[in-house]
Amino acid sequence: MRALVTGASGFVGGHLCEHLVTEGDHVVGLSATGRWPADLGHLGQSVRIEQLDLIATAEDTLADLIGRERPEVIYHLAAQSNPQQSVADPRGTWTTNLGATLNLLEAVKASGQKPRVIVVGTGTSYGDPAPEFIPVREDCPLRPNNPYAASKAAVDLLGIQHHLGHKTDVVIARPFNHAGPRQSPRYVLAALAAQVAAVETGQKECVEVGNLDVTRDFTDVRDVVRGYRLLAARGQAGEIYNLGSGRGTRILDALDHLRSLASRPIPVRVDPARVRPVDLPYLIADPGKLRAAVGWEPEYSIEQTLADMLESCRGARAGAGT
Questions:
Q1: Do 255 and 157 fall into the same domain?
Q2: Measuring CA to CA, which residue among 19, 73, 78 is closest to residue 50?
Q3: Do both 212 and 222 map to the same domain?
Q4: Residue 245 carries which DSSP code?
Q5: Residues linked to residue 270 through DSSP beta bridges, in sequence order
Q6: What is the pTM of this model?
Q7: Within this chain, do residues 139 and 196 fall inside the same structural domain, yes or no?
Q8: Where are the alpha helices (DSSP H) in 201-272?
Q9: Which one of 25, 70, 159, 228 has the minimum C-beta count within 10 Å?
Q10: One domain for residues 140 and 192
């Protein structure tokens, strides 16, 4: 397939580009920076990346690019994806997430091309579901409790409206928490893995944590991007698909597993600054619709994901000379 990936230089974008290349797709990446970070430098040999800001770029310029590239599928990953940052900057989050998506979909309409557009939402748009909605299906009411989750819920509605109003070939994915090698330590499992690696080398005395009594549906990013490609090939236009493992992992258990992999004892200290004022205690996906539509199943266990993340953090520290 000919693929265009927005947000290509980010955490998920990099893993998606790697997967698409492995599958033999022709891939062009779009990024606000227009360059690959050091840990994705290898993609420079197989994926052309172009500098393009989806907010600042005029619709006709973006439409011309889509017309030139003639993608069969556009994976729209570009977003402000950190919930805590969204609380600090709600206006910027709404502008980036909803505004960029509107600009992209309008450019698709103006381009004269008919690509499939994979619009990425989030499972956090469901908020804190009542027990009868757990595990969460796609028909669970949306009750987002932060600007990131709310803006992504609006993106979902925009995608549905564009499909119904303009026949745009939109498929919406709602991934739940995902993790894996190269993830920013702004996210909980990556933060824990990075701290364990730092304690191993004596750079930190202990791992500092927030609320550990939280259960999430963590899916390996490599399984997530595989799900996106399957939806591009077999998903139904105008439909929404949850993407999650269907299994819950308590943060405390994830930390205990990382500590068991460490080369030395890992002390832990609760840091009040890391305890979030708003947190969802329990959020698990029901991936049955996705499974039935495209045959997706997770291939990575949470234990393997955590082991790979810790090894990645160790490699990064070694590469940095620490």
A1: no
A2: 78
A3: no
A4: -
A5: 209
A6: 0.95
A7: no
A8: 221-234, 251-261
A9: 70
A10: no
What single DSSP character describes residue 136?
B
Alpha helices, H only, the chain? 11-22, 59-69, 83-88, 90-94, 100-111, 147-166, 188-200, 221-234, 251-261, 288-294, 302-319
Clarify whether residues 200 and 129 are in a common domain: no
281 contacts 127 by C-beta, under 8 angstroms:
no
Residue 192 CA neighbour count, 13 Å, CB half: 29
Token pair listed for 265: 């004892």
Helix (H) or strand (E) holding 64: helix 59-69
Contact between 216 and 176 (Cβ < 8 Å): yes
Cα–Cα distance measured from residue 20 to residue 24, given in angstroms and rounded to the nearest whole number:
6
322: tokens are: 């620490």
Q: Cα 69–225–157 angle (5° rounding)?
A: 75
Tens digits of per-residue pLDDT, 194-249? 999 999 999 999 999 988 989 999 999 999 999 999 999 999 999 999 999 999 99
R_g of the chain, CA atoms, integer Å = 19
User: Which range (16-30, 193-207, 270-284, 307-321) has the least confidence?
Assistant: 270-284
Give the model confidence (pLDDT) of 33-55 as tens digits: 999 999 999 999 999 999 999 99
